């Protein structure tokens, strides 16, 4: 699975409200068996989400022996029995094609059928993407006189040094793309930045190995003129450091580069935290300093952790589909479920569709 920091932005004015401030009833389907952790962790997260949002119903997808007892004990939980399971070791496409009674496939089908307003899974990223594309289905656009399906784009926001958030898309859903796919990613990412983060006129950058217009691979260079022509707010090429600089509101690239960049940031963050802890614990003075800095360090850890943010969203589908970190926690499942409900309440899908022309 994609290793995601899963940094769903914390609520502020203009953002999705997490916790049921919008009183509309909403129903979210949650995959009980998709991640690395035991189903009990996911079920505990669902229970916490139900307690946090009185207007939330949950459709719990998984084998009967996992979901039946839990749902019978919770008034706003209903079992979606899925006898098959897609694991992290499976081939995503093959698994979606052959295990049509799996929790991931049935969860996506529930969104398609209107049985759920959104689907959250900490399962195999490729399988959730494939099932979302096959069953929730992407929007289509008019291109060269014919209708063409949009590639779903895995998107989320990373904290930056300016104190804000920078949207990264694609984070790993599409390793191989065409230049026009990158244009669509940029358009959808800008819509996400606008309606989720409340950013007026988001600045969009194309990830490259330099800021000059001529920099980049042959692929990046072929994307540049299309971005300039079709993406409102396009501000040119940006570098890897701009993922956290705050100079751009949206950074766009293919899923291969995006996933490598994301994991590099995660690795660097873990290294710095480990080195800081090791340095502070190496002497008496360091331990005293660590004690004084404890609140600051806790805040930094929460900022870098994905647990408080929930999951990344697949933009471009006709329904809300969110993917959490495979090694998820109770807190992450809770917040992923609440974030999925918030996205449905705020009409993210329609807002993304409005960002692109001739969508059908």
Jot down its keywords.
12 helices; 11-stranded mixed β-sheet; 43% helix; 13 strands; two-stranded antiparallel ribbon; alpha/beta; 360 residues; disordered N terminus
Give structural notes:
Helices cover 43% and strands 17% of the residues. The protein has 12 helices and 13 strands. Strands 3-2-1-4-13-12-7-8-11-9-10 form an 11-stranded mixed beta sheet, sandwiched between helices. It has a two-stranded antiparallel ribbon with strand order 5-6. Helix 4 packs parallel to helix 5 (125-136), helix 6 (179-195) packs across helix 7 (218-230) and helix 9 packs antiparallel against helix 10 (284-304).
Radius of gyration: 20 Å
User: Mean of the pLDDT scores?
Assistant: 84
Parts with pLDDT < 50 across at least 5 consecutive residues? 1-23
Give the strand order, joined by hyphens, for the main sheet: 3-2-1-4-13-12-7-8-11-9-10
Strand content: 15-25%
Classification by helices and strands: alpha/beta
Percent range of helical residues: 40-55%
- Taken in chain order, the helices and strands follow as EHEHEHHEHEEEEHEHEHEHHEEHH
**Based on CA inertia axes, which overall geometry fits?**
globular
Main pleated sheet: 11 strands, mixed
Count of helix runs:
12
The N- to C-terminal Cα distance equals 31 Å
> What is the number of strand segments?
13
């Amino acid at each position: 699975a994609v290793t995601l920091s899963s940094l769903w932005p914390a609520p502020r004015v203009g953002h999705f409200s997490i916790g049921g401030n919008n009183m509309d009833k909403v129903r979210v389907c949650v995959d009980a068996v998709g991640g690395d952790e035991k189903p009990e962790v996911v079920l505990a997260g669902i229970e916490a989400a139900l307690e946090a949002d009185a207007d939330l119903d949950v459709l719990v997808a998984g084998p009967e022996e996992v979901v039946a007892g839990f749902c019978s004990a919770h008034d706003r939980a209903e079992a979606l029995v899925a006898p098959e399971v897609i694991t992290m070791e499976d081939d995503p496409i093959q698994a979606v094609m052959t295990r049509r009674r799996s929790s991931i496939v049935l969860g996506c089908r529930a969104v398609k059928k209107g049985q759920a307003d959104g689907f959250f899974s900490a399962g195999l990223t490729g399988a959730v993407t494939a099932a979302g594309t096959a069953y929730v289905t992407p929007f289509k656009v008019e291109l060269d006189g014919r209708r063409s399906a949009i590639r779903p784009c895995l998107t989320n926001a990373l904290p930056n040094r300016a104190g804000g958030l920078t949207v990264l898309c694609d984070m790993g859903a599409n390793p191989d793309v065409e230049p026009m796919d990158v244009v669509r990613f940029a358009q959808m990412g800008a819509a996400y930045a606008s309606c989720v983060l409340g950013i007026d006129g988001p600045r969009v950058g194309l990830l490259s190995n330099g800021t000059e217009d001529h920099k980049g691979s042959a692929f990046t260079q072929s994307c540049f003129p299309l971005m300039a022509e079709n993406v409102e707010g396009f501000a040119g090429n940006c570098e890897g450091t701009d993922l956290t600089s705050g100079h751009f509101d949206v950074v766009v690239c293919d899923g291969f580069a995006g996933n490598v960049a994301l994991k590099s940031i995660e690795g660097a963050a873990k290294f710095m935290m480990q080195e800081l802890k090791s340095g502070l614990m190496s002497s008496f003075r360091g331990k005293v300093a660590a004690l004084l800095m404890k609140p600051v360090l806790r805040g930094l850890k929460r900022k870098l952790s994905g647990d408080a943010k929930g999951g990344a969203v697949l933009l471009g589908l006709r329904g809300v589909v969110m993917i959490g970190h495979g090694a998820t926690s109770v807190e992450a499942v809770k917040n992923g479920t609440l974030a999925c409900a918030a996205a449905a309440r705020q009409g993210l899908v329609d807002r993304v569709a409005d960002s692109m022309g001739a969508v059908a």
